[in-house]
Amino acid sequence: MAQLRLDAEEFEKRNTRIVVVGPEDAAAFKEYWEKNELPFVGLPDPKVSVLKLYGQEVNLFKLGRMPAQIIVDKEGIARFVHYGHSMSDIPENSELFALLDQINQG
User: Fold this and answer.
1) Rounded to whole angstroms, how far apart are CA atoms 60 and 15?
2) Among 47, 48, 54, 76, which residue has the fewest nearby CB atoms (within 10 Å)?
3) DSSP per-residue letters across the chain
C-alpha cells in the first residue's frame, strides 16, 4: 500500500480509483485508514468473500493473503491481474502506469 500511496496523484491523473481490499474487520480497517491517512478507498473483507471472486490466494504458511493487483476498466472488465507469490511480489507503479495508459488509449 505504501507504493500506491506515494503515487496516488499519478493514479488520479490517469482517472484511476484505488480500492484496497483487506482481511481486517470494519473497525480495524477504519482505525488503520485513519491512523495512516490513506488517500484511497479501503474495503474490509474479513470473510475473504470479495477477493475469492478474483481468485486471490490465502496461504496460512505465508502469513495469510498474498498480494493481488487487479485493474478493472470502466465497463467492469478485469484488464490486468497479478497474483503475488510473496508479500513483496508487487508490480512497480511504473508498470501499472504503462498498463493504465494503454487501457486509457484504447
Assistant:
1) 35
2) 76
3) -HHHHHTHHHHHHTT---EEEESS-HHHHHHHHHHHT-SSEEEE-TT-HHHHHTT--EEGGGTEEPPEEEEE-TTS-EEEEEE-SSTT----HHHHHHHHHHHHH-
Residues 6+ apart with CB under 8 A from 58: 48, 64, 65, 66
CATH number of 2-105: 3.40.30.10
- CB count in 10 Å sphere of residue 51: 20
The whole-model pTM stands at 0.80
Torsions phi, psi of 70, nearest 5? -135, 130
